[in-house]
Amino acid sequence: MSMPTSLSSIPKTTQFTSIESRSLQGTTVNTGPQGTTSKATGKRASRSDGASADEPSKARWDEVSVSTLVPKMRTEGLRAYFGQAEVLKGISLPVAEKQVTAVIGPSGCGKSTFVRCLNRMHEVVPGARATGQVLLDAQDIYQAEVDPVRVRRRVGMVFQKPNPFPTMSIRDNVLAGLRLNGERPDDPDAVVEKMLHRVALWDEVKDILGRAGTGLSGGQQQRLCIARSLALEPEVLLMDEPCSALDPIATARVEELIHELRKSYTIVIVTHNMQQAARVANFTAFFYLGKLIEYDRTDVIFTRPKEQRTEDYITGRFG
């Protein structure tokens, strides 16, 4: 993948057209490069870019300071270990509600371990453990009385490689999570149709629901796995490099799906593809050697990062 050699070579207007504004009436926002703030009032504040002061304005999520957001989840001093090896070193990071947060960084920096800690999947690896806090709606999910199975229901996971159950049909794959949790919906066919519509797969498979899920293309299998996760009605959806094994067309379909899902779900996506992070994420966190180096709005990370290591990484000087 060819990488830009300087931040000035990243055309903002092309990189961030997919993360357009969302209305946030009444929220304190950044109105320009001077860092002044104002309340969203329906009138555009004066700007240095020549915009008319009389133009009606929509408050933009991408002008909101990360410090003003109310997170759905957040970590406080999160440390993760494999045996004696510390792979996460005190990560404190908010996850904005009903937004997409991308986690980027070179291989081995702790990205996948971080998202696995968010729904207590890290601890299922023999010898693995975590310390610190992971808060979901202000409740620490690592408290002794918290059932990890219930956590994983509220915080779903989509893995790097599509993993439909090979002995199950497309229909049964969608329902598998519910059945494993002991649930029997009154109208399972309605659940299947609803979830497949939600991942834009229904029209492609509605006539072959009895066929094995493994008979679908890679992109269709990944969307089927997303439908399986959504059937449990999670509040947060974790995606660990969901497009790394897909071709460009299938990748585009999954990215379109992410744009739709963020209207209803809080999403955290791990990706090695920085163009993908720029396309789908509202906020981006840069990890390096197990540490959180920088976290901000995606446009800030990619055009005016505060840390030299962030700039070096996104411009291809290492990683």
Strand share of the residues? 15-25%
Order of helices and strands: HEEEEEHEEHEHHHHEHEHEEHH
- What would you call the shape? globular
CATH top level label: Alpha Beta
Write down the overall mean pLDDT: 84
Unreliable stretches covering 5 or more consecutive residues: 1-5, 8-59
Structural Rg: 21 Å
CATH superfamily: P-loop containing nucleotide triphosphate hydrolases
Major sheet attributes: 6 strands, mixed
Number of domains: 1
Q: Count the strands? A: 12
Specify the helix fraction band.
Answer: 25-40%
At the fold tier of CATH, the topology name is Rossmann fold
Order the strands across the largest sheet as they lie in space. Answer: 8-9-10-5-11-12
Enumerate how many helices there are, as a single number: 11
- CATH architecture label: 3-Layer(aba) Sandwich
Summing up helix and strand content along with how strands pair, one would put the structural category as alpha/beta
What is the terminal separation in angstroms? 12 Å
